[in-house]
Amino acid sequence: MPKTLYVRVSTQADALDRFEAAWHLASGRRPPAPLAVLSFADLPLLTKNLSPARWELLKQLKAIGPVSVFALARHLKRDYKNVHTDVAQLTALGLIQKTEEDLVRVAWDAVRSELRL
Q1: Domain locations in the chain?
Q2: N or C end: fewer C-beta atoms under 10 angstroms in the chain?
Q3: CA 112 to centroid of chain Cα atoms
């Protein structure tokens, strides 16, 4: 089953509305399917955290599979320190996972975005 992360720009009120809807759905006969959501308060915050360089890093990491941060930096032809910083931020956001061997990998098969006005 593919793992999909939904990235959204939404207010706290929207998140509470989604929680309430899930709560009511869960009180029915069957529990709702699990949904992984990463929400940002506004578009500037989303683009700061998922910059074009970080998006490219995610795409390349997904393509090459689990590697060390050093090998990833070399593959991307980028400075190790900058890649390390990006990997740390993307790991904190849940977009990248570390393996037991201390390699990094993309945690998702797909990332879908929803931007609400």
Answers
A1: 4-115
A2: C
A3: 9
pLDDT single digits (tens) 42-96: 888 889 999 999 999 999 999 999 999 999 999 999 999 999 999 999 999 999 9
d(C-alpha 12, C-alpha 73), whole Å: 36
Q: Using CA atoms in the order 56, 58, 63, 65, what is the torsion angle rounded to 10 degrees? A: 140
Residues 6+ apart with CB under 8 A from 75: 60, 64, 67
Instruction: Write the CATH number of the domain with boundaries 4-115.
Output: 1.10.10.10
**DSSP assignment, residue 67?**
B
CB 110 within 8 A of CB 116: no
CA–CA distance, 111 with 5 (Å, rounded to integer): 5
pTM of the entire predicted model? 0.76
How many CA atoms lie less than 13 Å away from 15 in the CB half-sphere? 13
CA 20 from centre of chain: 23
